[in-house]
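pasting for ref
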Amino acid sequence: MFCSQVTKPVYQFRWDKGDLSQFYYHSDDLLSRIKGHIFCANDSIGDACYLDINVYYCEIVHCLIEACKSTIPRITVSALKHYWSPALDNLKQQSLLTHTIWKLSQCPRHDDCFLLTKDAKYKYKLVSS
């Protein structure tokens, strides 16, 4: 009998969809609570000093991750198309806009509106496939 491995989904932060001002506010609040006490003299840099720096660094990273988790939306990596780009976004928007204009002009089959719609759709499909 075969055992199926259960894999945890991998998430990605969607910085383009998040409220950055909330992230800045929340991260500032969390970072201001860190009490960094690093006592390293120039002539006595040793293991204790490196340990203090490492703990301080880990606290900073932890605060930034917590601020992200509470203010920036996450989605599974598999939900995104690896080939998608801002250029494709523009082509898709142009295709949708020309299609809407074509429908509002009562779906003509032989005029400039129809040709623009077909051209925008063709460009979008050509790049996205």
